[in-house]
Design goal:
Immunoglobulin-like, 4-stranded antiparallel beta sheet, about 50% strand, 3-stranded antiparallel beta sheet, single chain, about 0% helix, mainly beta, about 100 residues
């Protein structure tokens, strides 16, 4: 399993700004290693976010996203104490879910 995501969610005027730093290698499948062999593709394909269990974001990603991707988005109606959960799935079937509380 990969390292935990670093998630921050701060509310101001009824809108929470959510910042997520995901730990993932994000290989495109085009790079070659030192021996000249192609490094297999390994990247996040789906990202979802929920606010107190209700979906607020869904994204499909491909191999062109940078290593250790950063995602930022706003959620209207989020209050201090609400739970934000982020889930990603990659092309090898691995998944990771982490959550934070809105401050």
């Amino acid at each position: 399993m990969s390292d935990p995501m670093r998630i921050r969610a701060q509310s101001a005027n009824g809108v929470a700004t959510v910042r997520v730093l995901m730990s993932h290698e994000m290989e495109t499948g085009l790079r070659k290693d030192a021996a000249g062999n192609t490094v297999p593709a390994w990247h996040i394909t789906d990202v979802t976010a929920t606010l107190n269990g209700k979906p607020v974001l869904s994204a499909e990603w491909g191999p062109a996203v940078a290593k250790n991707p950063f995602l930022q988005f706003n959620v209207k109606g989020a209050k201090v104490g609400d739970k934000i959960a982020i889930t990603w799935k990659d092309n090898k079937g691995d998944t990771r879910t982490d959550e934070t509380t809105v401050t």
